[in-house]
Amino acid sequence: MIFDCDREPHHPSCFYLFNLKCVRHAADNTCASQCNQIKQFLDFLEQLEIGLEHVSTEVVQKYLFGYLFKKKKLQASTIKIHSTTLFSFFKFCFERCFISERVIYFSVFTDEYVESQQTYAELALEIKDLYMTNSDIKLLCEHVSGNSDFIRKRNRLAMMFGYYAGLRTSDVASNPLLTVAYFKRCIPNVLEGGELPISLDISYINKKSSKKVSLNIEFALISAIHDFIYDANIQDKLTSNTPLICQENGSALNDDRFASRKFSEAVENLIAAGNINNSEVKKWRKRHFHICRKCFATNKVVWCREQGLPPSIIVRDYLGHADFGTSIKHYIYADWLLNQHNNKEYLTFLTADETSLGRKFMKKSAIEM
Fold first, then answer.
1. Which parts of the sequence belong to the Tyr recombinase domain (predicted)?
2. Which domain holds residue 213?
């Protein structure tokens, strides 16, 4: 629910969100996102002492361009999402006669204009700040908190599933395929003479698409899972059907934002420890759990190149995307790859499905099937 400055329910937005959820049957995440976007806009209007009935194209332009783009430095794609939400909200208000109908333009600047304002150098610097190395994620995991050894190790695993497996925050907690029994079948106990695999193929349910996603995870995550499921102080709390990321009593952890919250807590702990300089503090302030998924995608491009595999097929499937264009546009830090490896061939490699490499992979896969 959204409240006005007098702490009374803001009726237009409350009715809009009710309609969005109960009439249009939008997902909970969609409702929550639009609620936050509308509240942010209303807070902006309150600062300007402008009522909803007095909003014009000029006010919308000040908000989208002056506030979101210039001050908050949001990407054009994110601003378009805010713009679309505001368009739907005002359309609803006009139709329900909450405010008098008028012409308001919500797309107040073009992509070309945005690109002219935000230079390539600025974008490259932003990516450099957001991307997390192996050392970064290990440092963050050292600052994960918890009241018990179980909770601390579980929370570290949540971070690692984002970075090393590319899971969304909604896929981490109580995923139906990621059970203790599943990992005990895949990962032997080294204390009983078993040997840890260097890499491992796993599957999980992508809750956003409700599809099964298969991917390859590396040793760092395998080792962490092993230490959790075979810990002498933890084993008694984990039954065969227990989800790997669960409550301490073994019951399901029904919290789609769990990993995001634990990431933010760890960042605050890291900053509070006072062992990083101001520049690093600013970097960590910009980061959030979903960045882990983007780092996973970027790292898998490097892995694909080392293995001779096409990222347009492998990374797309690992992320659970239908189109590799989504992976490139929103997830892979191509600028970081070019800068870090000083190799422009990565641009060609990212379109490997159009090369002999991609065709060879598809032919080999067809034979194996």
1. 127-347
2. 147-255
